[in-house]
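TASK: fixed-backbone design
INPUT:
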């Protein structure tokens, strides 16, 4: 009986063997190429840059809440006068001003004049009739005439502030100027003209609430600097009833809330204008003004909003 010799068969390569061989070949080729460039002193060819991924534009207001907020703000603009409200360039008003402390005042009201040139110029004149001698006749202030002399004037031009008293003209106090600039940035004019047209501002519908005994709807606007302002709008008239914003004191990091309430709206040259404005600081009434006359689009000269510093209030008094 003969024994049969079998030749061992070479196993067939598995499905991954060919890929391994390809990878080994590729690695060897890359090594040889690198060595060749190193010996010749040349640099390997640069890698081709991958095409940049297109940046997607994020729509911050693509939500039901944002659309409802935008519709409400658009209705408010129309209620205030539409284009005449959005495009007025200047305004003047006169009335009585009440500074308050802990919500109370001992004053019977100070007569004042106020001139505004959008977006960043204004002049506030306080008239103390009891403490100054009023000369007969008319005193010319630029091209705006008033029958009374004034003894306190606050001027803001851009980010600068000036205060004029019987002592002369000085730079406005730093803290007072910061407070004013903050109010201007959150004023109705800036909210409806600047914030609302900024694509980086997100809108939120806040729902219903009662403000100053009126049923209102709230809208919050949040900008790219994490600063926000909330507008409470009358459900019936669509006029703004309250504007609210908050900030942190850099010294103690405590949160402060400032609010303005608008009332007694009346039409002035096609623009619905509040004739009562009350300001609150951390829930406490801080000042109030009642407007008797208001006018728009006056030809106010730039000189009305100019001032030159004549003294330094922080300098020690001169020795006599």
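OUTPUT:
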């Amino acid at each position: 009986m003969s024994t049969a010799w079998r030749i061992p068969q070479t196993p067939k390569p598995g499905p991954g063997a060919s890929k391994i061989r390809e990878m080994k070949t590729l690695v060897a080729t890359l090594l040889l190429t690198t060595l060749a460039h190193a010996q010749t002193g040349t640099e390997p060819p640069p890698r081709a840059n991958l095409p940049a991924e297109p940046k997607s534009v994020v729509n911050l207001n693509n939500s039901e809440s944002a659309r409802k907020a935008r519709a409400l703000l658009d209705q408010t603009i129309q209620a205030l006068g539409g284009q005449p409200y959005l495009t007025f360039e200047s305004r003047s008003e006169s009335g009585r001003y009440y500074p308050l402390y802990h919500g109370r005042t001992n004053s019977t009201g100070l007569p004042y004049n106020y001139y505004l040139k959008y977006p960043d110029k204004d002049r506030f004149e306080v008239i103390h009739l009891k403490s100054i001698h009023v000369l007969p006749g008319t005193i010319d202030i630029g091209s705006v005439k008033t029958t009374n002399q004034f003894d306190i004037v606050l001027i803001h031009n851009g980010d600068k502030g000036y205060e004029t008293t019987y002592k002369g003209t000085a730079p406005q106090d730093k803290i007072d100027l910061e407070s004013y600039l903050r109010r201007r940035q959150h004023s109705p004019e800036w909210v409806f003209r600047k914030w609302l047209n900024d694509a980086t501002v997100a809108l939120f519908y806040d729902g219903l609430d009662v403000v100053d005994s009126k049923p209102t709807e709230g809208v919050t606007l949040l900008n790219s600097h994490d600063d926000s302002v909330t507008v409470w709008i009358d459900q019936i008239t669509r006029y703004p009833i309250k504007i609210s914003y908050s900030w942190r004191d850099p010294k103690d990091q405590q949160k402060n809330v400032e609010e303005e309430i608008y009332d007694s709206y009346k039409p002035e040259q096609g623009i619905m204008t509040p004739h009562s404005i009350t300001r609150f600081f951390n829930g406490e009434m801080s000042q109030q003004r009642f407007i008797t006359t208001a006018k728009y689009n006056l030809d106010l000269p730039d000189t009305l909003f100019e001032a030159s510093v004549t003294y330094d209030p922080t300098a020690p008094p001169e020795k006599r």
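COMMENT: The chain has one domain: 66-305.
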